Amino acid sequence: MKLFSELISAIEITNKTNAKIEALVQYFKIAPDKDKLWLIALFTGKRPPRPVKTSLMKTWCMEITNLPEWLFLESYSTVGDLGETIALLLPEPSHTLDLSLHEWMTKLKALKSKPETNKKAFVLDAWSGLEQQERLIFNKLIGGSFRIGVSKKTLVNALAKLTNIDANQLMHSIIGKWEVDSITFDELIKGSHINYDNSKPYPFCLAYSLEKELLELGEPNEWIVEQKWDGIRGQIVKRNNEIYIWSRGEELVTKQFPELVDAISNFKDDFVIDGEILAMKDNDVLLFNDLQKRLNRKNVTNKLLEEVPIGFYAYDILEFDGKDIRGQSFEQRRMQLESIFNSVSLPEHIKLSFLVEFNEWKELHDIRNNSRAINSEGLMLKQKRSPYHTGRKKGDWWKWKVDPLTIDAVMIYAQKGSGRRSSKYTDYTFAVKKDDALVTVAKAYSGLTDKEITEISQWVNKNAIEKFGPVRTVKPHLVFEIAFEGIALSNRHKSGVALRFPRINRWRKDKPVDEIDTIETVKQLITAP
Q1: Under CATH, which number does the domain 2-143 receive?
Q2: Would you call 494 a catalytic residue per the annotation?
Q3: Which of 113, 240, 246, 346 is the S-S candidate for 350 at Cβ 3.0 to 4.6 Å?
Q4: What is this structure's pTM?
């Protein structure tokens, strides 16, 4: 546990990805294999069920410290994390426990079925045998709230640096089906439980935002224009009668979209196709808010399949019958893609992306401005002669998104950030008018300068009304312009709407609170072109 605790400390004190990768690499070099497996399991969501209720941990801590509940809750409000609050309040350890991460996790798994008296004895003994930081990690492991600032991609990049194994292969391997007790670390990273050759994707070709006038791009007939759909970019890999779907985030999402697998199985050829995964119904593209209901589902029910059907717009083809064709021109690849799609009868939810017809650049302005009417984000402009690049290469592909929607809202809640911003209020909740009251409409934490954040934090300290854990209720006084990409009706939100990618556009110091938007004017944006 000491080694694992030191790793977590090293990760939490930095917001630099390379530093986190280096800390992980050093851990993997010296940790026992079973500990390495458990680290990967914990960081990828393969953790055992919570063995002890957090309410019990809170009760036991108050018993040990003789603290009244109000004082414990006040401490929790200040710290903002239950596991950390308990670790800070408990007395110094009376003895030393020196168990590995694997040994702790084995004991925690066995604890699940034990009676409460056994659980209490185990937890209290651990608390009295661990140093404060180790105790914090223990609390997070046992309390079911183990979250750390390491993405799957960062973890994979660390493993790739350690082993020189392809990152995509490692991603496939660690998110595949495996158990800590039935595989070795070497078997896991080498993918002995998967067939990576059949599933291997390619790096995605990405576009820069358009930063020049259309006329500067050259002749219109040298370009192909498509709609930029608001879904999930994905690669569908079909090889040797096996089908895999990869997201742009380099995660396997095959099981989340069974209707795509069924449709692609109708093709006789092998290929790798790049495109957009979308929520589609009655031949229309739905909002991203609808698509979110299908994301990250371990099990896709028949009800969900019916309520939110999934479609796919194919943009490009990267491999055909085992041959990498990324070096061919986009125009050539498009012809190959059309040939494949014309060779088989497909359901209406699997489509080729349609090409925007235009003769002069000026025609694209109205088409782009009307994109929201079909739930598109704007346009994609691609050079006909361009190969399929790895990553971004300026000049060949451009994305030309519609301008964001904006509203004026007032800040009503503020919460401190993490890391280097842990002393400042950086996370804000905003509200608009509803009759004679306010209703929350968005959360945002980006868009302000460091100077503005400092100024707002000072204001929050002076104008906080109530405390709810780490959150402060403030006087409805500061007005901000909130920008967002899209808006949809939502039963999950009190306001009845959900904003897509909200962020702070500017601080409206010039605007009084009585001039902020109403929920009625916000809802009118749903049908705005």
Answers
A1: 1.10.3260.10
A2: no
A3: 346
A4: 0.66
